[in-house]
Amino acid sequence: MSARAARERPSRPFPRPIAAAGLVPAAAAALVLLLGSPLTEPRGAAPRPGPASTTAAPLPAARPVRVDIAALGVSAPLVDLTLDSRGKLGVPDPAERNLAGWYRDGVTPGSPGTAVVVAHVDTPTGPAAFAGLDTLRPGATVDVRRADGTVAAFRLYAVEEFEKSDFPSARVYGPAKDAELRLLTCGGSYDPEAGGYQSNVVAFARLIAVHPPDPGLPGKNDSHDS
To answer: Can you give the pTM of this predicted structure?
Structure first.
């Protein structure tokens, strides 16, 4: 049995859509957090810094096309996500298990600031792209392939689970001087009567290197393959 298969959970309907705040102050004030928790923390609050580590110079903006997490065996195309009329961020198609999305009106991964990437933990047909995100440990790496041909390599410095009713939005989405990345999905207990998953898993990472693309990997500059 593969490590990915071993993480499979019983099939269950995915709860209400994920919503995440990108770091555009005007937009952040109107956003609703994951599963509808209101954004109530001060927008100016800074996120808790991670431990010191080697960082790379931030990159110019370029659209991300794929996220790779070697420790989970994940290589998922990235789709653009925008806010709807209710101020909620759209989500990747729940019918596509291997799919992630990024907030295109926020920071692009690898650029200065905090970029946000979200994916489902599971779908009605089984585990999705971020199944197992809660098993990652500091030091794990995340590669984001970009349309300009660069690969932004991030290293995790924290993976935490927060109750949706007490989500630290300023810490997760707060501004950053360097290039930071947040990976978000649902987690914790699953209670369909209470609206689904009761927590969110957040992986905190920072840019550590920039690599040329690997031509042997799929989706080098194409976000539509899977």
So the answer is: 0.74
Q: Answer whether residue 182 is part of any domain.
A: yes
The two structure tokens encoding residue 35: 């599963």
Which residues contact residue 110 at a Cβ distance below 8 angstroms, ignoring those fewer than 6 apart?
58, 59, 62, 64, 144, 146, 150, 152, 179, 207, 210
Q: Find the angle CA(116)-CA(144)-CA(55) to the nearest 5 degrees.
A: 85
Higher model confidence: residue 194 or residue 20?
194
CA distance 77 to 69: 12
Residue range of the domain that includes 64 = 53-211
Per-residue 3-state assignment (H helix, E strand, C coil) for 95-108: CCCCCEEEECCCCC
Residue 120 lies in a domain: yes
Structure tokens at 42: 């001060």
Strand, coil or helix: 36? helix
Residue 37 lies in a domain: no
CATH number at residue 153: 2.40.260.10
- The structural domain count of the chain equals 1
pLDDT of residue 189: 82
Q: Please report the DSSP string for 66-123 in residue order.
A: EEEEGGGTEEEEEEEE-B-TTS-B----TT-SS-EEEETTSPPTTSSEEEEEE--SEE
CA distance 36 to 85: 14
User: Which two three-digit tokens encode residue 109?
Assistant: 């991964």
Report pLDDT digits (tens) over 155-192. 999 999 998 888 888 898 889 999 999 999 998 888 78
Average pLDDT of the segment spanning 34-45: 33
The total of other beta-carbon atoms located within 10 Å of residue 179's CB is: 26
